[in-house]
Amino acid sequence: MKSDKKTVIALAGNPNVGKSTLFNELTGLHQHTGNWPGKTVAIAEGICKKNGRVYKLIDLPGTYSLSAHSAEEELARDFINSGESDAVVVVCDATCLERSLILALQIISMTNNVIVCINLMDEARKKGIVIDSRELSISLGVPVVETAARSRKGISSLLDCVDKLSEKGNEEEEKTELPTENFAAHAAEIAGRCISGNGTGYTKRARRIDKVLTSRAFGFPLMLFMLALIFWITIEGANYPSGALSKLFTSLEAPFFDFLLYLKLPDAVCRALVFGVWRVLSWVVAVMLPPMAIFFPLFTLLEDLGYLPRVAFNLDRAFRACSSCGKQSLTMCMGFGCNAAGVVGCRIIDSPRERIIAMLTNSFVPCNGRFPALITLIGIFFLRNTDSPFSSLFSALLLTLIILFGISATFAASKLLSKTFARGEPSSFALELPPYRRPQIVKVIIRSVFDRTLFVLGRAICISAPAGLIIWLLANTFLGGVSTLSYLAGLLYPFGKMMGLDGVILICFILGLPANEIILPLIIMTYTANGTLTELSDISSVARILSENGWTALTALNTMLFSLCHWPCATTLMTIKKESGSIKWTLLAALLPTAFGIAVCLLTRFISALF
Amino acid sequence: MNGSICRLCDIECGETARVLSLSDENLLKERLSDLGFTEGTVVECIMKSPLGDPTAFLIRGAVIALRRDNSKHIAVEVMS
């Protein structure tokens, strides 16, 4: 085999067998994820080099079978059948070998060049499970390699095995007679022969933990506690780095301006670039980056630990009542970090109908971009004493209440969709509750920063730069003696008033389409007739400006509610368009929450008028 | 209860049962057997969701949650 030709290795396997860990260990950061033509399923590809050889790795989606019931299964089956790969590595879970073997037998019956990789060997040994891999290799008629991908054990012998297999080529050799159907019974028989020891994949300890996490008494309180804890860590932790970043960007503003002048650009262009584009851009980065860099690792930790599937298990009944499924709760959790990421996360939902519901309702949970404004408004209008040491905890509690409202709205909207645009019965539902695993903290941080944080940040930057320009133009051109921005706010005033808001708030929500984090700063900017965004560091002056402009507790409440229920940001809408491939669903994704928000604001206004 | 025949959705937490047959609804049958629910397989009922449904079963070393709507299509013989 020539060294310049890549050996193509496909990784197949059940979900949760450490397939992605193996993939990450093999490829490091030399990987990219892309959609395959005509499919919405993501496939990661990566390159791995060893001893001058180059391997191209394809991480097929995790599936339980290849019977093509879902897009993932179809894709995995088509790829394996296509013969594009020099080797198909079936990754099996050593702690749950019997189940993994069902898929392995299916794949062996479809194609040659299969290698069975028993991953998580370290974990199995710890649990007292003994696997005779020689016997397994004889039974299956294919090479078997033991690995522990998390500690990189067995990885080089896996590659050696691939080399041996690809050198041998497609020579026909005597194969062990294997069945072409009834894989499950056969898997049980082989497992019985190859597994010994008195261990079990589902330990007594996991059993005890599960009993508590899913009990009637503790299941829901623990979930709420986790949620509140994560928000608290995110909010508290993001304060300082956000401030520091914002200082850094501000200090760079003057040199940037001088540089533009030095280029002999007209004064107006320099101002537009610095006070429009640069300010909005640095604002978005400073406010968005730190909370995301804290939230996503925490979320990924819970994911790695195995807690999230238990959340889906606890909540499934409630989602079924809306003709949806428990996995939607996980996409909602991801939406707390960023709705665009939440929409991408909807790929974990099998039924296309339920996936659309989850995508369209994702923006009802507030993302990190909306937290700062919510917290500021809670602090100004609903906290008596902001100096008390418990105020941040109390503010987190109030925030949790607001979030609970968003969650209720999600349920209502899902129910509505399942009765109207996305009609249908709840599909069959099977959810695997994987064993608890100790997360690898450093790797989790690196991976979540690269996979989620930078991805979202990149998109936000692309959108907020042109938005900065538009905002600056609106604030610095004049119509009838006032800025265009104030003029437009005046037009919207009657409608805003009806909803317990005002024209400025509404126009700022519209201009906040590129990123929710700029809405409150925009409101302040418009009230003060300032041509540029200004720092909100001094909360008492914000409070003064708002109350001078007629804000009451109702205005604050309705602003928060409308922040929860309005069109998703441009990044999220773009993502919905990409994931659903349909303008109709994208439009509905914008209209549905907006209609909700308007209705709720009218309602609170009406109720408060009664007293 | 020992030896009695019922549906998988009817067994209690802690009970073990052997799968006798799956209903003939084709798609569901295939999905369930992909997960390992086939004739003769031993299944243990582990826990119920706090809201009563779904229920988690230990099957072939993996814990899998099924909704009542699906598990009612599986006939089992209670073992203990």
Please, could you describe this protein's structure?
The complex is a heterodimer of chains A (611) and B (80). Helices cover 62% and strands 9% of the residues of chain A. Chain A has 611 residues and is an alpha/beta fold. Chain A folds into two domains: 7-202, Rossmann fold; 219-425 and 438-610, no CATH class. In chain A, the strands form three sheets. Chain A has a seven-stranded mixed beta sheet with strand order 2-3-4-1-5-6-8, sandwiched between helices. The longest helix of chain A has 44 residues, at 219-262. Residues 35-40 of chain A have low confidence and may be disordered. By secondary structure, chain B is of the alpha+beta class. Chain B has a single domain, classed as SH3 type barrels (Roll). In chain B, strand 4 and strand 5 form a beta hairpin. Chains A and B meet through helix 3, helix 7, helix 8, helix 11 and strand 10 of A and helix 1, strand 3, strand 4 and strand 5 of B.
